[in-house]
Amino acid sequence: MKRFYFFFITLNFFFNFINCQLTRLSPPNSLTLQEIQTQKYIYYPLKSNAEICDYKLKFSFEKGSTLSSPDLFGSMLYTDSYYVIEFKGNINVGSLISNITLSLGSLTSVYSLNLACSLIDLSTISLEIDDRIKYDNILGYYSTIKINGMDYHRFSLLETKLSSGISSLGNSNNYIYFWSSSIFENKMNDTFTITVEISKNAYILATNSFYYNVPTPSLHSQYIEAFPDYIVNSSLSFTEFGYHYSPLFYFISETQTPVPYQLYIGGGGTIYKTKAILGNKNKLKSIGSFQNYYGATFFQILFFKDDGSSFRQTYNMNIIEFPNLYSKTQDQLLTINNYPRLFSFSFPTNYSYNFFNYKYSINENFFISGWPFGQLSNFKHFSVFIDPLYTDVGVSNSFNVKADFNPNLSYINTLSTIQPPDNTKPVLLSYSFNRLKGKNSKILITLNIVSKNGIETIELNGFLFGLETLVSGSNKNGTYEIIYQLFDGASSIDTLKCSDMYSNYFSYNKDDVISYDPLLIFKAPEYLTNFYEANSLDYIRFEKNDINLLNSVGYNTMYLNSSTISPDSLLLLVLTDPISISYQATGSTFHGPFPITYDSNLKLFKCDFIIPSNNLFGELNYLINYANGFLTNNQLGSSPKLLINETYLDNQGPIFKIFEKLNENVIISDNSLIGWKFTITDDFNGFSSGSIIVRGSLDSSKYIFNFTLADAITGDKFESQYQILISLSKQCASQSYIISNVILTDTNNIQSVFNQFNDANFDRTITPFINIYENGVENLQLSVICSYGIAEQTTPTLLSFKHSLSNSIADVSKISSIRFDFSIATPTTGIKDNQLPTVYILTKKLKKIECISELVIVDNIYGSTNFTCTTRLPIGFGYPGSLIFSIYGFINNAGYYFGYSTSNILSSFSSSYYVNTTFSNINDEPIITSTDNIFSTGGILMIYGRSLSNTKQISIYYSETNVQSTIIQDEIYGSSAVLINSISETSKPFKIQIITTSGLKSNEYWVTPIYFESPTKPVIPTNPPQKCSGNPECGGKSQGYCSPNGCICFSPWIGTSCQSKVIVVPPPIVNPNEPSTNIITNSTESEASSLVGVISIISLRELDHNNKVIKTFKFEKWNQTNLENNRNIYSTSIKFEGSSSNNDCFINVETEWYETLRNITFADQLLVMNPSTLKYNINITAYPFQSKLNTLQLVIRAKLTQNDYNDDICSNQEFGKTVADNSDFIQLSVKDHSLYGRFVKRGIVDGRILSIDNVKLNDLDDESNYYTSDSFIGIVIPQYTNLIQLDPDFGLLVDSSPTDSTCKKSRTLSKGAMIGIIVGCVGFVIVVVIFAALYVKYKYHLRNLKSVIKMENMNKN
After folding, report:
1. Model's pTM, two decimal places?
2. Whole-number Å distance between alpha carbons of 471 and 377
3. Strands 82-92 and 310-316, how do they pair?
4. Cα(440)–Cα(941) distance, rounded to whole angstroms?
């Protein structure tokens, strides 16, 4: 029966494939129905067990025609040129045939549309599941399921019997299933099954337990240490230290594998995993929390036993919830007051203090703010004012205020709809995607948009952007550039939405038609939409596999080869070890995610990354993220693993050992000090820095104490003592001072964090107060009694309020500043010391800026207290619309706080409570806003900002005396990004500045490198300093300058004295029959006089340890291939007797002609390519050395000849060392022209950068005379296994001070500078003969060079 079913499905699929299409039934005429784009007519269910398919089709037909289709639902769209019908719906398994009739006057056309919904052919598929359940610190317990043989369809949901379904990993045939940790109880070594349903067939997949055959650790169950210790099985109660800061517990295990062996059951029966925080294999400490989410009175810890069973240990305890002073008995509706320009929202509050944030929102717009925003006084109410929002007709504005830590504490009201005055939608004219180079995972998205009402926001995949992305034009007709980055999660661009100031918008999903005339479809490039599986990766290798992290970080490099993944793909390496997760939780990018980028030299993807020190032992887990999903290291099977062989885990931040009050319940009769004295311990990493916030319970005053190890009273980083003190005057208010926030950081950037009002998902095991739980939460509160307290509970008069913007207009087309000056009548008790009010700037879209003021003066004569504050307005902030102001956070010495709402300012200073925004023309002045992260090894750096399209030069300030400038040619990305290739190796911060073609200079921007030690850091020798020469020295100020290392020349001047000049000539003509290039030019004004330059790769020689030549292979036959953009490939091979063709040594030379000045990078070194330069990229595959002591020598011949022998001419040659780039050079001169070759002193050897020697060969016969300069150079190649890459280049120069050596007539010639750099000279002939090339069996595979085989061989060695 099953065979018959498969046969039926196969036949059904075949006939559907043949017949499912659009077919014309009537005779042909001019009335036609045409596809808008290539579309399918056979569909498959999106869910694996469904029997229904969704379809969507679009056709165009002649304008003015009518269309009828009784069986299909269609919606019409109209363009200026034609009509469009979109059919959309679903059909059951089988076929749907519908006739479509078109009519226009006397013309009629009839079509038959045949659609099919087909099930998957089960005979072609098979399912796989991991052999055992996997575990990851982020994913938890999981299994991956793969469907093989289903190439023509993807299920969005793989359905199962016992779950709601399994989601796919990035639109692939890989699915991830998450297991509950509760399944392992008493089933530690069991096999578990998942039943998957596809097309009404069940597939039972079996996998072993995560703990299968894993040694069970010895558990010290009797050593369960609780905090506080009295809470376990005791009638004593414990009051939480903060919101859900419940009791904690430690326990210790002896384990050989870093897996979670201890689970605990919290309130409500939920099972949690404990977290390893300290120790190694012999003694690993874990921590857990007896969470009191459900008012539980008992908790259990689940232990596994050697026989695979488990037991629960029960603990009874009495936990009192942290006093919820902020709960309410009923919803409090906000009152709404209408002002001419504003909405006012207010609600009563009688809270004595507020140490948490509120979230204010209207529909999707929101901001978050804590005290003192909106608080008019201790005894009044919140008051919030905003500009009105335009919305679609029939859509209400819902205003909501809720406590950020507790969603149940909220206030809601509904506003009436404000209908926009114009409903014309914006129009997207065009768009583009441009992958940014460099070490990042970013793309530049360019949008050209017109809008009658002006664009306000652009939304990509839920990420909002504003007018800061406008780079040219205006918000009514402009170009927008968005730098979009691949984040930790999938970030394929599927949706685009753009809204104007009246909330009119267009919205497109993937494959939606933007325009029909001309046709424009919203679609991301393939490198953002492709999905990858484990077999997409041909090869993965780590520079280091066994890593020591004991008190040292792990510097490492990943190499990844793939024949299917595009070099433009956005890839990220995400480490999921416990320490990296701790870093990522704080927003740090120091330990990832790390971009994986394509290295064109290695022909591999490469990623430098850092593993945090003092980490968990065992195998380190990681993810490879791409735009559509991710791959786990467990999916990669036998790929090399990252193993931590020596370490000691420290994943707990510093904690308090002792915490004591100073002057508790003191009666303040004179100026006094109160505070706390405490001892901080961190046994392994050591303490680094801390921050503590103390607040007043009555007046909500706020004191912030920041301190470091240098502030310690006594001790060292492992244990040290500190104190924090608050100064109170005798005129004060009786109240308690409460510690509300603490952050302690160790030397490895691991933090302990305490926040009284964090949300329920916050990890409360990282509290620094674990040792203080024993003393109770009262230890965080310090009460004072003021004997001279005077009641003053009235808000003083706001005497003045003004801003600095003339005409109340803020131009937000550029970053601008705004200053506020205001004064109040001085309260009788005075303003409390160190408590400063804040000016709030709010937009109608609920964007907020806070400006903390400074005290200017307390004027006792006029009875006023004056304040000022200055802040910056970001580009596009609040436009279009107004910015409204309010001030909150004044505190007097009687414990009374107060503020002034927008309404208060409006009533007294009607011209100062707001400013209107405007957006003038885009400023041409360049602005640097950010850069990519860069390691201390230097290299390439992407710079981001505005108005960068005209960048000419970038200055890099390593120090006051070390300034380098780089000319930028073609590494500019619109107006938003510039790539620089020339960052030197440095661990110190440096400045960069951009200079445009018109001479405008950007801001100076500081870049701080991240220290990185390359596992294969090359030891490249630098050339010794040279004495500056020339007359004038270094060619004079216009040609170069004298540095401590010798002359540094300005392009186009080069040479040891900067007196040779590059000359631009047309590209050479390529000889199709032999690897020679002829460039003919006159050396003098006479057309009969010319020069011929010949550059030849002659042979490959093997040398013994005494540099004696033992083998020579001359190159006599080669193949030539033309590539685009003045590039050519020449290839040959060396065949060895008795070996197969697979053992041949292939030589490939790629030549490239540079017509303009360019910066390139080879072997992590920046090289400047002058105009008319011919560069070689030489690749030599595996060579069978006769001895491990032998080396190779690639012989290159350079020759320059004058064809007019009657001229009074001389020739010369020089071999030396360059100053600027630590290379060797050969300079052949005839009369006043030179052929110049540069030989880089580094190469890429088996993927590693190593030093390379270049020598002038005197053992070969040359043809030098007075009209010819001829020389042989040998590039010394060390022993290698798979591949060597070299990169010399050549050029022609004209010499302003020629040097004479061998002359036709006997005369004494002065010595001059004849320095140069590659090809080029008007009036020259260069015949470039290349006798070396890389073997290319198939021309279009040249770039790969058999990457897979080579990299596998590299791994074996």
Report:
1. 0.76
2. 44
3. unpaired
4. 9
Query: Measured at the alpha carbon of residue 558, what is the angle toward residues 556 and 559, in degrees to the nearest 5?
Result: 140
Q: Which two tokens stand for residue 36?
A: 């808008």
Q: Which residues contact 570 (CB under 8 A, 6 or more apart)?
A: 435, 441, 442, 443, 486, 491, 527, 528, 626, 627
Phi-psi region of 528 (alpha: psi -120 to 50; beta: other; left: phi over 0): alpha
User: What is the band of 244 on the pLDDT scale with cuts at 50, 70, 90?
Assistant: confident
* Nearest partner of 1081 among 1091, 1094, 1067, 1073, judged by Cα: 1091
Q: What is the mean pLDDT of residues 1176-1197?
A: 90
d(CA 856, CA 870): 13
Q: And the tokens for 1085?
A: 């004004």
For 1323, the enclosing helix (H) or strand (E) is: none
* DSSP result, 16-66: HHHH-SEEE-SPP-S---EESS---SEE--SBTT--EEEEEEEEEEETT-E
* Separation between Cα atoms, residue 969 and residue 829, nearest integer Å: 66
Tokens of 701: 């005053």
Tokens of 655: 């904690």
Best CA proximity match to 247, nearest among 166, 321, 163, 337: 321
Query: Among residues 791, 569, 610, which one has the least CA distance to residue 698?
Result: 791
CA 42/CA 40 separation, integer angstroms: 6
Long-range CB contact pairs, 1296-1301, < 8 A, 24+: 1296/1035, 1296/1059, 1296/1060, 1296/1061, 1297/1030, 1297/1031, 1297/1057, 1297/1059, 1298/1210, 1298/1212, 1298/1229, 1298/1231, 1298/1232, 1299/1212, 1299/1214, 1299/1229, 1300/1210, 1300/1212, 1301/1210, 1301/1211, 1301/1212, 1301/1213
**Beta strands 1233-1239 and 1224-1230: pairing type?**
antiparallel
Spell 729-762 as b/e; 16+ CB within 10 A means b.
bebbbebbbbbbbbbbbbbbbbbbbbbbbbeeeb
* Burial label, 971 (beta-carbon count in 10 A; 0-12, 13-18, 19+): buried
Can you state the percent helix, strand and coil of the chain, rounding each to 5?
5, 50, 45
Model confidence pLDDT, tens digit, residues 149-170: 887 688 888 888 776 678 776 6
* Pairwise CA distance, residues 1353 & 1357, whole Å: 7
Is the torsion defined by CA of 432, 433, 437, 441 positive or negative? positive
Exposed / middle / buried, residue 233 (Cβ in 10 Å: 0-12, 13-18, 19+): exposed
Element (H, E) at 649: strand 649-650
pLDDT range class, residue 676, cuts 50, 70, 90: very high
Q: Are strands 1145-1154 and 1127-1134 parallel, antiparallel or unpaired?
A: antiparallel
Backbone conformation region of residue 956, classed left if phi is above 0, alpha if psi is from -120 to 50, else beta? beta
Q: Find the length of the chain.
A: 1357
Cα 342 → chain centroid: 40
Phi, psi dihedral angles at 373 (to 5 degrees): -55, 130
| CA–CA separation, 1001 and 993 (whole Å) | 7
> Residue 621's Cα: distance from chain center in Å?
20
The tens digit of pLDDT for each residue in 1211-1257 reads: 888 888 888 888 898 888 888 788 888 898 888 887 778 888 999 99
Which tokens is 368 given?
A: 């978050």
Encoded tokens for 356: 């948490």
Positive or negative CA dihedral for 330, 331, 334, 335?
negative
Burial 710-728 (b: 16+ CB within 10 A, else e): eebeeeebebbebbbebeb
DSSP 8-state class, residue 174: E
Considering only residues 312 and 1274, tell me which one the structure prediction assigns the higher pLDDT: 1274
Cross-strand pairs, 1112: 1101
Q: Is the peptide bond before 1052 cis (omega within 30 degrees of 0)?
A: yes
CA-based angle 244:582:168, to the nearest 5? Answer: 95
